[in-house]
Amino acid sequence: MSKTVISTDKAPAAIGTYSQAIKAGNTVYLSGQIPLDPASMQLVEGFEAQAVRVFENLKAVAEAAGGSLNDIVKLNIYLTDLGNFATVNEVMSRYFQQPYPARAAIGINSLPRGSLVEMDGVMVIG
């Protein structure tokens, strides 16, 4: 099976040795997104703004792959403070409708560039 690199300038450029997403068949593997503004490559401030920025970044990559956030079947959310769990749920409700994707919310020590949240996912299109 061939792999296709998905890339868009509407999401932050990769800051390491990875692609924004890889499409294999009708499955798209979305790399982790942190709340970098794609134009400035700077972190946005505040947890809610960071969560919104991450969803906007994921949305841009999903659309570049020919799909949408509603095509995500599995979403992983990494939080440096699980106290932000309710806020991430509220922000997520702005972007997704039922049926919601399968999901994990994982508390971790730290994220790249001091981010408070990172998300990755798997999407099936077509």
TrEMBL record:
The protein here is known as Endoribonuclease L-PSP
Task: Give the matching CDD domains.
Answer: YjgF_YER057c_UK114_family
Of the GO CC terms on this record, one is: cytosol
Provide the GO MF annotations for this entry: deaminase activity
The record's annotation in InterPro entries points to:
RidA, RutC-like_sf, YjgF/YER057c/UK114
Gene3D superfamilies noted in UniProt: RutC-like (3.30.1330.40)
**Family membership:** Belongs to the RutC family.
Q: Pfam families from the xrefs? A: Ribonuc_L-PSP
